[in-house]
């Protein structure tokens, strides 16, 4: 199937989802009812309701209906809404004089001459592991602290606060309580809470042009960077709500590569990680980051929790295109069929990619250099064959995965015990 046909098929899926919404069906029904009434009156009482008047009414009704459906209901399903407030990744990299702290993908095996793999992406590493470990070996501390936008940051968009609030509503975003990452160390995630709306203001509108002509990215650079290096999370004033995800690799040697919907808030219409999302406060409170990641994994894929053999920590990154928002990236080793059904409307399609020639018995096998090289080369080849760009999340996974493999090859270290094993 050609690339254009694949894209049209996936767009049709999203339009079907739009017309499945009750409010869309209500407006369509209302329009049809109004049209039926006008036509009935025209046919039954032609002298009272001349054809010229009825034709005019039908034209006006159709125009109003078309504008409403397009702007209010269908547009979020067929447009990448981030483009109005977050620039493209390559433009962001080019906007910095010295992006040397950004992840360099040129060392990835098989990355040369790949059109969809840039040299650098606007992502930096906040914390990297020195050993292969799972998330249940990390401590977490949830502080009794709620984030408020500090005055130095609020002053940058104060005159545009009403417009940003209206933008939030137009995109049908929903506010809610979120986990905020205060800091990440070798053994502990220090956390607090924030809200999605505060992250929208401080992380998700960096390139929205303010009334003064500048952008929040331009105005806040001294708050995010110390020279050309991002400041540590603990020293930056942004909302920085915490999320994560990872790539699923199954015991039969396959990886799951989904296609993100256009209507999602982050990186629509792209090949993405197998699962990703913001962490739920309740999940983190009861089971830490490990529980939060497993909850997202089993919610987004048709997967039993018992089939998840391990969720390995690859590192914590800062998304510079979102002014340093932190994400943690993982490799989920799963005993399941790679043709897993997607159970979230965030995805419109999913590909199963063979990355290992033989079944995988242990997650440690995936971190052997030759095996990891093959996994990355197979993923890059799969990206090349698809009509979608790779997301920054997926590219970050590739860099972090290869970085950890290289570290383990040079300095092998035993995996720390899980917290349960310690107790």
Could you give the order of strands across the largest sheet? 3-13-14-9-12
Give the averaged pLDDT, no decimals.
84
Percent of residues in beta strands: 15-25%
Radius of gyration: 24 Å
Quantity of strands, as a count: 16
- The CATH class of the largest domain is Alpha Beta
CATH hierarchy: architecture of the largest domain: Alpha-Beta Complex
Keywords: Membrane, Transmembrane, Transmembrane helix
Transmembrane segments: 24-44, 56-75
Question: In words, what does this structure look like?
Answer:
There is one protein chain. This protein is of the alpha+beta class and 423 residues long. It folds into two domains: 3-78, no CATH class; 83-422, Alpha-Beta Complex (Nucleoside Triphosphate Pyrophosphohydrolase). 39% of the residues lie in helices and 21% in strands. The protein is built from twelve helices and 16 strands. It has helices spanning 3-19, 22-44, 51-78, 89-94, 151-157, 161-170, 196-202, 216-224, 281-300, 369-385, 392-410, 419-422, and strands at 103-104, 120-121, 123-127, 139-146, 177-184, 188-195, 225-226, 229-230, 243-250, 254-260, 270-271, 275-278, 308-319, 325-334, 347-354, 389-390. The strands form six sheets. The chain has a five-stranded mixed sheet with strand order 3-13-14-9-12, with helices on both faces. A three-stranded mixed sheet has the order 4-6-5. Strands 1-2 form a two-stranded antiparallel sheet. It is globular and about 90 Å long. Residues 419-423 have low confidence and may be disordered.
């Amino acid at each position: 199937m050609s690339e254009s046909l694949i894209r049209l098929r996936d767009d049709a899926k999203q339009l079907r989802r739009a017309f499945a919404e009750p409010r869309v069906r209500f407006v369509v029904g209302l329009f049809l009812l109004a049209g039926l009434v006008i036509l009935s009156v025209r046919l039954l009482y032609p002298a009272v309701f001349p054809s010229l008047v009825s034709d005019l009414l039908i034209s006006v009704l159709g125009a109003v209906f078309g504008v409403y459906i397009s702007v209010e209901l269908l547009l979020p399903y067929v447009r990448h809404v981030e483009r109005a407030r977050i620039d493209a990744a390559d433009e962001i990299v080019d906007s910095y004089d010295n992006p040397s702290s950004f992840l360099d993908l040129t060392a990835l095996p098989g990355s040369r001459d790949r059109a969809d793999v840039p040299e650098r992406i606007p992502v930096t590493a906040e914390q990297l592991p020195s050993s292969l470990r799972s998330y249940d070996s990390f401590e977490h501390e949830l502080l009794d602290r709620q984030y408020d936008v500090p005055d130095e940051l609020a002053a940058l968009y104060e005159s545009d606060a009403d417009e940003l609030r209206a933008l939030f509503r137009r995109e049908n975003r929903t506010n809610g309580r979120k986990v905020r990452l205060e800091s990440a160390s070798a053994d502990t995630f220090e956390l607090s809470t924030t809200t999605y709306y505060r992250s929208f203001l401080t992380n998700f509108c960096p390139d929205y042009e303010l009334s003064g002509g500048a952008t929040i990215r331009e105005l806040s650079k001294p708050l995010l960077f110390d020279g050309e290096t991002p400041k540590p999370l603990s020293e930056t004033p942004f909302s920085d709500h915490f999320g994560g995800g990872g790539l699923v690799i199954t015991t039969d040697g396959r990886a799951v590569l989904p296609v993100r919907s256009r209507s999602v808030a982050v990186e629509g219409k792209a090949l993405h990680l197998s699962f990703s999302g913001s962490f739920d406060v309740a999940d983190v409170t009861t089971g830490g980051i490990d529980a939060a990641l497993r909850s997202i994994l089993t919610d987004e894929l048709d997967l039993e929790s018992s089939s998840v053999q391990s969720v390995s920590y690859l590192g914590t990154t800062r998304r510079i295109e979102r002014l340093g928002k932190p994400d943690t990236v993982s490799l989920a080793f799963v005993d399941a069929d790679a043709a897993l059904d997607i159970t979230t409307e965030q995805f419109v399609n999913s590909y199963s990619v063979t990355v290992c020639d033989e079944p995988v018995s242990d997650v440690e096998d995936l971190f052997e250099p030759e095996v990891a090289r093959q996994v990355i080369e197979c993923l890059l080849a799969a990206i090349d064959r698809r009509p979608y760009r790779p997301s920054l999340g997926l590219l970050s996974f590739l860099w972090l995965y290869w970085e950890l493999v290289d570290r383990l090859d040079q300095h092998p270290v035993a995996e720390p015990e899980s917290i349960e094993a310690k107790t």
